Structure formats: C-alpha cells, structure tokens
Amino acid sequence: MLLRRNKYEYQLRDKHVIGDFEGSGDDELVGTDGMVGNPTVYPSANCVLPNYLSKGGKFYAKGPNGESIPLAIKGINWFGMETKLALPFGLWTNDFNGTTVYEIAFFLSKNNFNSVRLPLAISSILDNTPPLKSVINQNLNRAIDISSYVKTISTLVQSLGYRNISVLLDLHSLTPSVSGGWPWSPGSPYTKADYLSAVDVLTKALCNNHHWNIIGVDAKNEPYKSTWGDGSATDFQLMAQIIGNRVIKGCPNWLVFVEGISAAQKLTVDSKTFTFFDWWGGGLENAGDAHRFLICRQK
C-alpha cells in the first residue's frame, strides 16, 4: 500500500514538472505526510547570512570566518507582487496551466539559474497587504504563507533558498497602479519618510539567517523621471544614496543595487553629432563620479 502511495505521489508530482525534467528522487523533497514536492515547511538550510560585497566588478559572499566566495549571478525577474495580486504570477496551478513555487525553483536550478529579482510595491509593504487568494493554489503551495505581504515574501525567499537561489528585493513601484518615475517628489503618493519606512519593514523582518539568500535591495526600478547629481528635488543620485544608507543601517549584510535615469545624450562620431535617450534605468553616464556613495564601502 505504501509503495503504491509513493508511486502515485511521484506520478502526481511529475504531472506538474516544467519542461522535460523528471524527478530523480535524490533531489526531491518528500513531506512527512508522503507528499512529493509540496512541503508544509521547507527544511532549514542551517546557513548564516553572509556579508554580501561588491568589489573589483564582482560580487562576493563573506562568511563568518572571513572567507570570501565569488558569486556569479544568472537570474530572472518574477513579476506579480508589485501588482494588486500581491503574488508572483503563475501560482494558480491547475489541470490546464499554472505552476508552483517548488516547480519554479526546481526548473531554475536545473537550468543553472541562481537568482530571482522580486518586484515589490511600497504601498503593499507599508500596508502589509495580503495576496489575492484566488490566484494561488494553496493546496499545492502549502509552504507559502499568504496571511500577509511580508510573510509571503518571507516564505517565498525560504522556498527559493531550498534550491540555493538568491533573491533581490526590488522596490519596483509606489503602488500597484503607480510605478513612479522617482522614489519621492512633490506630488508623489509617498513621502521620503514613507519610502524609508518600507525599507525598514524589509530589513527588520528579513535580515536574518532564515533569509540568508537575500543579497540586497534594488533602490528603485526605472527612475526615468529623475535627474542625476544636480542637487534638485528629483536628484536620484541623492535619493539612491539616502535609500542605500537606510538599507545598510538596517541590514549591513545586504548589497544596494542602483539603476540609472533616462535622459537625452549626445555622441559625436567623425564630427557628426547624434542625439539619443537612455533606456529607462540605463542612464548611468555620471555614476562613476560618486566616489563614496554609501556609508559602507563595497556595498
């Protein structure tokens, strides 16, 4: 009877596998109730949150004994949490489509992806908005706690950590309907204090060994309305510096990722001048002028 049950569970699990991968059995997670690939809680990795560093154009994880391990990142964006759904897309798995967190992590690992950028909304962080229950199959994503926004992030991070996949927390939009071309400014739905409070929520809840695989925070997605280094109310260099220092104050172990602006640029080739615009987030022409950007070096 037990053998028949195990065979059925593996057949059920293979039904939801993404692509051509079938479970080998060696790397499958079997719950105490016999369910395959659908734990109620992911086992602890017994890892210590390293000190993530950026130096010499490379990323490193520095352990408690001082050893530094170079990191190469091959990642994806997993959209959804920045929307009104407040959940990564695709977790409604059924007989027709959709998938589970376990299968996403399994697929990424098998294809040598090791990082996920998780877009978030400032309003959802501050309000701790619970996700929309109808867009997740809770029976097949039992380890994901959707009672609140922060707990959803926490359990997603731990689920990905089971496959040694790191996570970058992306401060993507101000609200699910307002992306925001800057973190804050006159007329923005959120003030500087609000934005920094959202940073504090994340560092307080997630800067610990349970979330050892969080490598840092993206200060703002595509600040295309901003300027750079002009000292004005829309100066994203200054804003990113303020946000980054707040991140490091709350979690000295994390990295700070800073995108560029979008502005008109000129390029002269053979005495002919061309005008072009940066792609949103790509305008980093003057970023090298900020020699001491954050309160901690190599961040």
From TrEMBL:
<keyword id="KW-0624">Polysaccharide degradation</keyword>
<keyword id="KW-0326">Glycosidase</keyword>
<dbReference type="InterPro" id="IPR001547">
    <property type="entry name" value="Glyco_hydro_5"/>
</dbReference>
<keyword id="KW-0119">Carbohydrate metabolism</keyword>
<dbReference type="Pfam" id="PF00150">
    <property type="entry name" value="Cellulase"/>
</dbReference>
<keyword id="KW-0378">Hydrolase</keyword>
<comment type="similarity">
    <text>Belongs to the glycosyl hydrolase 5 (cellulase A) family.</text>
</comment>
<dbReference type="GO" id="GO:0030245">
    <property type="term" value="P:cellulose catabolic process"/>
</dbReference>
<keyword id="KW-0136">Cellulose degradation</keyword>
<dbReference type="GO" id="GO:0004553">
    <property type="term" value="F:hydrolase activity, hydrolyzing O-glycosyl compounds"/>
</dbReference>
<dbReference type="InterPro" id="IPR017853">
    <property type="entry name" value="GH"/>
</dbReference>
<feature type="domain" description="Glycoside hydrolase family 5">
    <location>
        <begin position="74"/>
        <end position="268"/>
    </location>
</feature>
<protein>
    <submittedName>
        <fullName>Cell 5A endo-1,4-betaglucanase</fullName>
    </submittedName>
</protein>
